[in-house]
What we know:
By secondary structure, this protein is an alpha/beta fold. The protein contains 7 helices and 8 strands; from the N terminus they run αββββαββααβαβαα. The longest helix has 18 residues. This is Carboxypeptidase.
Amino acid sequence: xxxxxxxxxxxxxxxxxxxxxxxxxxxxxxxxxxxxxxxxxxxxxxxxxxxxxxxxxxxxxxxxxxxxxxxxxxxxxxxxxxxxxxxxxxxxxxxxxxxxxxxxxxxxxxxxxxxxxxxxxxxxxxxxxxxxxxxxxxxxxxxxxxxxxxxxxxxxxxxxxxxxxxxxxxxxxxxxxxxxxxxxxxxxxxxxxxxxxxxxxxxxxxxxxxxxxxxxxxxxxxxxxxxxxxxxxxx
Length: 235
């Protein structure tokens, strides 16, 4: 369930200079890591939440410069869950696709910050900057990972009324799209039990890895000649 910050073995990329302070903090596993920090203007926050003893999730929140707070239409927050499992949302989706800066730290005109605040979490523990101090603490099921994520949200939302006013939309792709459903159920149960002060706005799934057999079979037209015959064979 672990992944290095090369963003996968097949596509290594350089770590932006912006990440070096965070990397220095997170490399001191049992001490010195950031519980919460941010920019002076409040446009960004990041840190760790200990979701279980010796198990820590890393999060990074961007506040949109276009944010408009109204009672009738509150500004949304989008929680991105990367695929894998083990893909870094902080690294991959943030810098490569929807965050305010690209991997060369240039401003991205198409950032999703134009429509929502963005919350990235390196999930599950062992992904990106998230870590455990004992390898026996890695999760083994989606429900365990969802419980950890729910614990992180309790820490971020239960003590911050301004976040509570912003509805949370969970968006994910690939295996993250499968995991997002489990996470959504875990979050909803915590809300109904009064354990999490959060407005769950909705769930969006992109190319979710729900049925591998069907997904692979449907891709036969893009493969080599006669591959469709091989793929469609059943034992």
